[in-house]
Design goal:
With 294 residues, the chain is of the alpha/beta class. It has two domains: 160 residues, Rossmann fold (3-Layer(aba) Sandwich); 122 residues, N-(1-d-carboxylethyl)-l-norvaline Dehydrogenase, domain 2. The chain has 13 helices and nine strands. The chain starts with a strand and ends with a helix. The model has no long low-confidence stretch (mean pLDDT 96). This is 3-hydroxyisobutyrate dehydrogenase-like beta-hydroxyacid dehydrogenase.
Length: 294
């Protein structure tokens, strides 16, 4: 049993924190909206009033927040001093690789280890502990936090080396490929529908033979059933943020990514129409609307 700090109880953070508590770990949790943290008290969590209060000297704190700015705001001098020599900050957020590298360098000034561990999972997969983790950073702290990832959400853990930003590069690549797959499916299902083919039959054939991965099976079903708005597991605004980071990383490394530009425009169009309750799978509406379908 470990004492762990956990900061950020959104759609992903909440089930991961709950799993850690169910596994017997002691958690001090912080969330900007305190009400969201209250259900975890029944599982034994201690609610604290600031990110620094979630830390203990030489301990472990996980952060899972929306963007680079939120991580930077948390990882201030007070927070790093509270973690202190030998402490570990496990950053599970999807952020810029450059930000991760800068944070890792800044943490070292306080003797704090920084491990990047972005989450590959939708909330239901995290809750079932069948998600995937990619980790990067120094070897010893990575080994020390493996149990946390396994108890929290991860069926598989992939170590991509010592450079802090590497895990975030892979996370951005993964999200780019998911978004591109949604565009691929949307265009394909539209072509099927406009040519009189039973789209459900096409979906079943394709996702049980050539394209059997969960991205095609799960997101394909959402596109097929037009499950675009309501209670998003991953908001379109966050999807747009991630594709912005993909394009930023591509620009800095002189990497042409025309498909990334396309899915970026699809997501931007979704948000331009005021669909604030849209899941990022709503990017599929671009191909549907372009073809004159609804």
């Amino acid at each position: 049993m470990q004492k762990i700090g956990f900061i950020g109880l959104g759609n992903l953070g909440f089930p991961i924190a709950a799993n850690l508590l169910k596994a017997g770990h002691q958690l001090k949790v912080y969330n900007r909206t305190r009400e969201k943290a209250k259900p975890l008290e029944k599982l034994g969590a201690i609610l604290v009033d600031s990110p620094a209060d979630a830390a203990e000297k030489g301990g472990i704190v996980c952060t899972l927040v929306s963007d680079d700015a939120a991580v930077r705001e948390i990882a201030n001098e007070q927070f790093l001093q509270a973690l202190g020599q030998g402490g570990i900050h496990v950053s599970m957020s999807t952020i810029s690789p450059d930000t991760a590298n800068e944070l890792a360098s800044g943490h070292k000034q306080y003797g704090v280890h920084y491990v990047a561990a972005p989450v590959f999972a939708r909330p239901e997969a995290a809750e079932a502990k069948v998600g995937n983790a990619v980790i990067s950073g120094d070897a010893a702290p990575k080994e020390r936090i493996r149990f946390l990832l396994e108890d929290g959400f991860a069926k598989n853990i992939f170590d991509v080396g010592p450079k802090a930003g590497s895990a975030n590069v892979l996370k951005l690549i993964g999200n780019f490929m998911i978004a591109s797959s949604m565009e691929l499916m949307a265009e394909s299902f539209v072509l099927a529908e406009k040519n009189g083919l039973d789209v459900k039959a096409a979906y079943e054939m394709l996702t049980t033979t050539l394209f059997t991965g969960p991205v095609f099976r799960n997101y394909g079903a959402m596109i097929l059933n037009r499950e675009f708005v309501g209670n998003p597991a991953f908001k379109a605004s966050l999807g747009l943020k991630d594709i912005d980071l993909v394009l930023e990383t591509a620009r800095r490394s002189y990497t042409p990514m025309p498909m990334a530009n396309l899915v970026h425009q699809r997501l931007l169009t979704v948000l331009s129409k005021g669909r604030r309750d849209a899941d990022w799978v709503a990017l599929a509406t671009g191909a549907i609307n372009d073809a004159g379908l609804k």
